[in-house]
Design a protein that fits this description.
Helix content is 41%, strand content 15%.
Length: 474
């Protein structure tokens, strides 16, 4: 075949002429680079290869990383994992070989991605997120994604979402906003963990987290500064009151002083806020994680003290009274998982008091059926979104819409086993969630997510909007 025949067969003469004309109109200083980029844009994007590997998360436990290749680039994603997995959330696929990573390897998932998923998706347009996610779902005949694994699906789904954004030549958060039908983006209020307890820390505090919300900041950058300064002041206060050992941290990176009551921990945080000079500008939130200390139909607030276990049982009614008093005494605006995952009755009663936002975590596990029931029964009024509980980007967008349609608040949340992937930062902005939970201002897996929000705010410039006091409905 001659050169001319080749040009004619592929219609290259016209395409090259169009590219040259475009370069002339643009008066480009580098015509070769301009023409190259112009020709590249003329090629329809397709997925050409998907490669998965096993990596370690922030706890040293295996998780998945995926490289998704298109004819225009490579896009990488990694997925987190929770400390505990609820029975109503999508299933992670693990190897189960006890002699390797205690059975928590993900090589089965790696193989499924490199074969079954790759075969299904190669040739698809990465801009078509819904179709890609449906193709992933169609590969698994179970309701909870037990065959292919939610971790397998999510890693590929996120990588495809990044590729779609790149093809559209827009930032990832803007692509997510487009996918969700939103015309505007909002920087979320960070829900910053400062004290760890519960099963995440070796102290006597029954609840899992005490958190701060810098709602009085004017922009995200200021909010992060307020949160970080308060955290460091708290560290100094804890050291002064409990000694250097009091500055040990929990598994999530929050400080873990040996406080025995919620009030004792809250008093420390209030003192830190005062010392930092942010009185009235920072609100508080609690993650009770009550499923962890529910025994039968009662709650053991001393479950971590062997000599006291069973002596401080609370009924659901008594816990409701305790929370009501805490909200009256402290600037608490949100309480997460105040009762057991199956205690719909007391969660509903507490929500009806309208003391604060009541967030469903174990109660909901980001499951649309559980969310629907909770909305219909007025059980809680906020969703803690953990994308790996759902399985795909599209399904995450759908449950957020479901929550918003129910006039709920939404918190986009990290997991205990994290990676340095900052996808959820983009997700929170694109969905205008209002709140974003990524742990304390320490440890790389948390900081990577906060730093990405700083970059997004910088990119948006004068168009950046911080949720602030409007965090419930930004």
């Amino acid at each position: 075949m001659s050169v001319q025949e080749y040009l004619d067969k592929h219609l290259l003469s016209r395409k090259i002429e169009d590219a040259v004309n475009a370069a002339v109109r643009a008066k480009t200083a580098d015509p070769v680079l301009f023409i190259s980029n112009h020709m590249k844009k003329a090629v329809s994007p397709v997925i050409t290869k998907i490669k998965a590997r096993q990596i370690l998360d922030s706890r040293g436990i295996p998780t998945l990383e995926v490289d998704l290749h298109t004819n225009k680039g490579m896009y990488r994603a990694s997925v987190p994992s929770g400390d505990s997995t609820g029975m109503y959330e999508a299933v992670e696929l693990r190897d189960g070989e006890k002699n390797k990573y205690f059975g928590k390897g993900v090589l089965k998932a790696v193989n499924i991605i490199n074969t079954k998923i790759s075969e299904a998706l190669v040739g698809m347009d990465p801009q078509q997120q819904a179709q890609i996610d449906q193709a992933l779902i169609d590969l698994d005949k179970t309701e909870n994604k037990a065959e292919v694994g939610a971790n397998s699906m999510l890693a590929v789904s996120i990588a495809a979402c990044k590729a779609g954004a790149a093809e559209k030549e827009v930032s990832l958060y803007k692509h997510i906003a487009d996918l969700s039908g939103k015309s505007s983006t909002v920087l979320p209020v960070p829900v910053i963990t400062v004290i760890n307890g519960g099963k995440h820390a070796a102290n006597n505090l029954a609840i899992q987290e005490i958190m701060i919300l810098p709602v009085g900041a004017n922009k995200f950058e200021e909010a992060l500064q307020m949160g970080a300064e308060t955290y460091h002041h708290l560290k100094d206060i804890v050291s002064e009151k409990y000694g250097s050992s009091g500055c040990n941290v929990g598994e999530d990176g929050g400080l873990a002083p040996n406080v025995s009551t919620i009030s004792e921990g809250l008093d420390l945080v209030i003192e830190a806020i005062d010392r930092a000079g942010f009185n009235g500008r920072i609100k508080l939130a609690l993650n009770i994680a009550a499923t962890g200390f529910c025994v039968g139909k009662k709650y053991d607030l001393d479950f971590k003290s062997p000599d006291k276990a069973g002596q401080n049982f609370k009924t659901g009614e008594e816990l409701t009274e305790l929370y009501s008093k805490l909200v009256a005494d402290y600037p608490i605006v949100s309480i997460e998982q105040p009762f057991d995952k199956e205690d719909w009755e007391h969660t509903k009663v507490f929500t009806a008091l309208e003391h604060c936002q009541v967030v469903g975590d174990d109660l909901l596990t980001s499951n649309p059926k559980r969310i629907e029931r909770a909305i219909n029964e007025f059980t809680c009024n906020a969703l803690l979104l953990k994308v790996n509980q759902v399985g795909t980007v599209t399904e995450a967008l759908e449950v957020v819409k479901q929550a918003k349609d129910g006039n709920w608040g939404v918190i986009v949340s990290h997991r205990l086993g994290e990676t340095d992937d900052s996808f959820i930062s983009n997700l929170a902005v694109g969905l205008a969630s209002g709140l974003f939970k990524a742990g304390p201002p320490s440890h790389g897996e948390h900081i990577s997510k906060y730093n990405q929000l700083l970059r997004i705010e910088e990119e948006l410039g004068s168009e950046a909007v911080y949720a602030g006091e409007q965090w419930r409905s930004p």
